[in-house]
Q: What sequence folds into this?
């Protein structure tokens, strides 16, 4: 039985189910799941809370020196959650206020250098599933399995609207749609590591798959690469 640990990179547009798949997959094969988007969201939260002028490179560099990010396992939720300077900020980073600014901040070169260095460190021992926008292209160009996810825009908007609505009944479909469109535009057109499909990525359009079907498909791709999914 193969025991070789690999890196699984999942990239794609906003809200197409990357983290759902990544979480399911990691727990099934005993890998660590790293949500790279949570890191950009936590940095954004810090900049907003501390009114950092992110148009100023010096201010950005100063602020980054005061930011410590870590993922801590939360047994009650059965997953790792992001901590910003030792505070669990999971529930704050999902707010629309953060979503409105995160792509602007994630486009800053210094911010990316800061986050990517930490992501690469987390992958040193392999055995991880990481999702984001540049994982298969920049962070782990040598990842053994790269998946590029997409889903119909209406489905993505509907899914994200339902998530927001649970905690914010004032949210509108238009607001969510605008945010997803804006982020996809900025993420795809920025100068620094824009969102794009790696040449060796497999495309997964999950518009018409159930969670179980998509997991089954991806487990097969993992097995094709390592010979077995019994890798824990
Ligand atoms: O969950 P959703 O797909 O909406 O987004 P996310 O993965 O939480 O990422 C939030 C934002 O962080 C993205 O819109 C990107 O601007 C940025 N991001 C990035 O630039 N690079 C990554 N590897 C991950 C996220």
A:
């Amino acid at each position: 039985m193969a025991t070789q640990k690999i890196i699984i990179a999942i990239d794609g547009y906003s809200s197409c189910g990357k983290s759902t798949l990544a979480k399911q997959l990691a727990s099934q094969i005993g890998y660590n799941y790293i949500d790279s988007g949570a890191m950009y969201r936590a940095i954004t939260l810090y900049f907003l809370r501390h009114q950092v002028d992110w148009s100023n490179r010096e201010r950005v560099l100063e602020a980054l020196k005061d930011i410590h990010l870590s993922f801590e396992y939360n047994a009650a939720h059965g997953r790792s959650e992001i901590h910003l300077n030792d505070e669990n900020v999971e529930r704050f980073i999902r707010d629309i206020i953060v979503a409105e600014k995160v792509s602007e901040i994630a486009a800053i070169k210094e911010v990316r250098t800061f986050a990517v260095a930490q992501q690469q460190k987390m992958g040193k021992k392999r055995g991880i599933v990481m999702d984001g926008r540049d994982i298969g292209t920049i962070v782990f160009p040598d990842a053994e399995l790269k998946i590029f996810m997409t889903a119909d825009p209406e489905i993505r908007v509907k899914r994200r609207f339902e998530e927001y609505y649970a905690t914010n009944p004032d949210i509108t479909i238009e607001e969510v749609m605008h945010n997803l469109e804006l982020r996809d535009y900025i993420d795809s057109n920025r100068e620094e590591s824009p969102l794009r499909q790696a040449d060796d990525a497999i495309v997964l359009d999950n518009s018409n798959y159930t969670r179980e079907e998509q997991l089954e498909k991806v487990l097969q791709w993992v097995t094709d690469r390592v010979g077995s999914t019994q890798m824990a």
